[in-house]
Write a structure and sequence with these properties.
The protein has 424 residues and is mainly alpha-helical. The chain contains 19 helices and two strands.
């Protein structure tokens, strides 16, 4: 490996580590996230040009910040801003090495950037893309590949998001009072969506996209450090840690899906489970009334504590889903509760609950509704009906691995019913 290649890889690593703090610090000064990212990118270009010859500096983050601040000063001078502003941002730049910022300042800036990137004024897709770009350090191409969308689409989302933040004059600050709860929910939703897309990809050839799971987990941990007194933050961390613990057991040798009850629990990551359970304890200690993420964490904790699938406390899980539906009503939550009830009280009890959801508009194209119904029908020996449900579910999913699994289940149900294979 040549020295130039090694340096380039070092720059990529530094960027992943430092970019969020760099952009956050610049955004506080510029009061413009778009301008802050452009300055950070300018600093990155300078590093790509200079470090292969000069070597990676001892404090690369400070070097990048110093370069970016100098570019900011140049901009203010070109725009004939007040000399006071120039002096304010340019303070301490006469020396080559930028002083280390206080840890509290870094944390405050990052928290401001989190709330700005996830502002409700932006669409969900824009919030996800901007968060991965600014806080994750992912390139536009990396985000596009992760979500299986064209790169120009992602680029357009990011550009529009930054323009919207500027046009709406969204303040670069941490919300206070009553607004904090609403805005925090928006932040947690973005991280949750990123993880879910990695955990069960909605489309494509892969069952999972581990890079998205890892990025969401990292963001949730950072958020817990920045907002240690928020129970739902710890609830989200607990949920993601425990879910991520199953990653190695969720796919077979060829990448085929392995469902929860069929997984080898010896392959679950016990360290992640311990971390998740500890985060759940922190959430529970901070509130008497668990929110939706902490309740979901409590549900997956029931699975994590069970040494075998047979030892799972399904009655407790059904109760928790009932509580979750009270704080966050959703037909999807009810569908999950039906599964838990079927495991606790038998498939007939679960099927009765599922059939009540048949007319829900939100579930009209949700492939897991016919999938769950097919599973319950199969357990009741109604294999011909189960075959129809599995075939219907296969037609609704956009994930190739999941479609294959569902068609295999439809074929097995057809065989038991004495029917020809679906589509045969």
């Amino acid at each position: 490996m040549t020295a130039a290649v090694e340096t380039h890889r070092a720059i990529e690593a530094v960027w992943r580590i430092e970019s969020a703090r760099l952009i956050a610090g610049l955004a506080r000064m510029m009061r413009d996230v778009g301008a802050a990212e452009e300055l950070a990118q300018d600093a990155l270009v300078a590093a790509l040009e200079q470090w292969p010859e000069s070597g990676v500096p001892d404090n690369p983050g400070a070097w990048l910040m110093a370069v970016a601040k100098r570019r900011a000063i140049d901009q203010f001078r070109r725009q004939e801003r007040l000399e006071r502003k120039v002096e304010e941002i340019g303070r301490d730049l006469e020396t080559q090495v930028e002083p280390e910022p206080e840890l509290d300042d870094i944390g405050d800036d990052l928290l401001r950037l989190v709330f700005t990137s996830c502002h409700p004024v932006l669409s969900t897709e824009a919030r996800v893309a901007l968060t991965l770009r600014l806080l994750g350090g992912l390139t536009t191409d990396e985000i596009a590949r992760a979500f299986l969308v064209p790169e120009p689409t992602v680029a357009q989302r990011i550009v529009r998001a930054k323009k919207t933040l500027a046009k709406k004059k969204v303040p670069f600050e941490v919300p206070q009072g009553a607004e904090l709860s609403e805005r925090l929910a928006s932040v947690l939703e973005v991280v949750y969506l990123i993880f879910n897309e990695g955990y069960s990809a909605t489309a494509g050839d892969d069952w999972m996209r581990p890079e998205l799971c890892a990025e969401a987990l990292r963001l949730s941990r950072v958020l817990a450090q920045l907002a240690p007194k928020e129970p739902e933050v710890h609830g989200l961390v607990a949920l993601l840690e425990i879910q991520a613990s199953r990653a190695r057991a969720r796919t077979g040798p060829d990448g085929e899906p392995i469902l929860l009850l069929d997984q080898d629990r010896g392959r679950w990551d016990r360290l992640l489970i311990r971390r998740g359970l500890a985060a759940l304890e922190r959430a529970e200690a901070l509130t008497d009334s668990l929110g939706p993420y902490a309740l979901q964490a409590a549900i997956v904790a029931c699975h994590a504590r069970a040494r075998t699938a047979q030892e799972t406390d399904w009655s407790r899980i059904a109760t928790l889903y009932g509580e979750l539906n009270e704080v966050n009503p959703s037909p999807i939550v009810e569908l999950n509760r039906a599964v838990a009830v079927s495991m606790a009280d038998g498939p007939a009890a679960g099927l009765a609950l599922v059939d009540r959801l048949a007319g829900e508009p939100a579930l009209a194209k949700y492939h897991l509704l016919p999938s769950v119904r097919g599973d319950l029908l199969a357990k009741l020996g109604r294999h011909a009906e189960a075959c129809e449900e599995f075939t219907s579910a296969a037609g609704l999913t956009r994930n190739e691995r999941e479609r294959t699994l569902l068609l295999e289940r439809a074929e097995r149900a057809a065989e038991k019913a004495g029917l020809s294979a679906p589509g045969g």
